[in-house]
Amino acid sequence: MTTAKICFIGSGNMTRSIVSGLVSSGYSTELIETTNPSLPKLEAMKADFGVKVSQDNEQAVKNSDVVVLGVKPQLMQSVCEALSHLDLSKKLIITIAAGIPCQRYHDYFKQQINLIRTMPNTPTQIGVGVTGIYAPAEITDTQKQCCESIMKTGGEVVWVDEESELNQVIALAGSSPAYFFLFMEAMIEAGEKMSLPKEQVGLMVQQAALGAAEMVKQNPNLSAAQLRQNVTSKGGTTAKAIETFEQGGIRSLVDNAMTNCINRAEEMEKLF
Ligand SMILES: NC(=O)C1=CN([C@@H]2O[C@H](COP(=O)(O)OP(=O)(O)OC[C@H]3O[C@@H](n4cnc5c(N)ncnc54)[C@H](O)[C@@H]3O)[C@@H](O)[C@H]2O)C=CC1
Ligand SMILES: O=C(O)[C@@H]1CCC=N1
């Protein structure tokens, strides 16, 4: 693994997830610094992960070999511009932001930077995340390996050849944990209208989701469709539930949701 000094600009949800993956995999906390304007977030980073923290983006960048940009897209320009007087030529910059093309960062920083664009997801926090990575042609193999080794501490990595494909990664991975949370939320709401205790309802939904995902993983030769059919007895209870989902248009709903996710990423590319 790399022994680069890494700073994270922004200590929000996604930074916490990546730092958690890094620290759990044994990355030295001495090599990690995260910044944020608000002290409570920094105190939480320090307490939860033992990393260095700071309110000073400029100092953190100066002290680092790798800079991970972890602020919201709408703040990215002002955050980068405030650092644009620094010489960044020897640093690797990794962005995790949705919807900001690589070229925009060179403009924000007012210099050519060594930039890799990534799209992680929050399960990185527990080592079962997936990160899409795009590196422009000028990025060296060493810089690519450095980025991959950082992101791999949170789970799988997927390289894409075209920058535009990162928007597909958003729909499939960056945003998608929220789809599964929504489905579980809906099941829990329905279950809580029944007579079983809430704890049992939550446990069963959690174990069913975990079990289904693990079965997909452990049966690479079986499609999700086959695994679904294996649960569905002809004329039985599952068939009735599945029929209800199909009649409700679940497939086109999911297709529309993912298309709209990509469309929003493309819209954001024009906004920020
Ligand atoms: N949350 C997610 O599941 C994913 C988020 N992302 C990307 O990660 C980025 C961050 O998203 P989240 O962590 O969800 O947002 P967040 O709002 O939880 O975290 C952003 C943090 O940046 C801090 N911040 C604001 N101004 C700052 C400044 N000038 N200097 C340093 N820190 C500053 C905020 O106080 C906040 O704590 C976004 O660009 C998003 O597109 C990418 C993949 C997944
Ligand atoms: O919702 C968002 O815009 C970010 C990007 C992927 C997940 N969260």
Automatic annotation (TrEMBL):
NADP(+) binds at I9, G10, S11, G12, N13, M14. Signal peptide: none annotated. It catalyses: L-proline + NADP(+) = (S)-1-pyrroline-5-carboxylate + NADPH + 2 H(+); L-proline + NAD(+) = (S)-1-pyrroline-5-carboxylate + NADH + 2 H(+). Its EC number is 1.5.1.2. Its main location: cytoplasm. Residues 163-268 form the Pyrroline-5-carboxylate reductase dimerisation domain. GO terms for biological process: L-proline biosynthetic process. It comes from the Bacteria. GO terms for molecular function: pyrroline-5-carboxylate reductase activity. One of its GO terms (cellular component) is cytoplasm. NADPH binds at N57. Pathway: Amino-acid biosynthesis; L-proline biosynthesis; L-proline from L-glutamate 5-semialdehyde: step 1/1. Residues 5-99 form the Pyrroline-5-carboxylate reductase catalytic N-terminal domain. Keywords: Amino-acid biosynthesis, Cytoplasm, NADP, Oxidoreductase, Proline biosynthesis. It is found in: Cytoplasm. Belongs to the pyrroline-5-carboxylate reductase family. Catalyzes the reduction of 1-pyrroline-5-carboxylate (PCA) to L-proline. This is Pyrroline-5-carboxylate reductase. It comes from Parashewanella curva. The lineage of its organism: Bacteria, Pseudomonadati, Pseudomonadota, Gammaproteobacteria, Alteromonadales. The gene is proC.
